[in-house]
Amino acid sequence: MIKITMYSTRVCPYCNMAERLLVSKGVEITEKILVDVDPVRREEMMTRTGRRTVPQIFIGETHVGGFDDLSALDKAGKLDPLLGK
């Protein structure tokens, strides 16, 4: 099973949409990191991605980006191969 990590907040609608898209693909988020609860993890996210916004999604060690990036990968037919489908 491939590891999916998502940096998120408790009130982010784009995070919810990203999670729904992944679930519709038959995968679960392995690690959801709530950066609004743990500011140290927000710093970690910004260091890892160079971005400040959530969600920030990793499939394995590949940084996918946010919801728009995830959705674009899906529309281009490139998400399923990343998920091992």
TrEMBL record:
Keywords: Cytoplasm, Disulfide bond, Electron transport, Redox-active center, Transport. This is Glutaredoxin. Pfam families: Glutaredoxin. GO terms for molecular function: glutathione disulfide oxidoreductase activity; protein-disulfide reductase activity. Has a glutathione-disulfide oxidoreductase activity in the presence of NADPH and glutathione reductase. Reduces low molecular weight disulfides and proteins. Coiled coil: none annotated. The keyword Transport applies. Residues 4-64 form the Glutaredoxin domain. Belongs to the glutaredoxin family. The lineage of its organism: Bacteria, Pseudomonadati, Pseudomonadota, Betaproteobacteria, Burkholderiales. GO terms for biological process: cell redox homeostasis. It comes from the Bacteria.
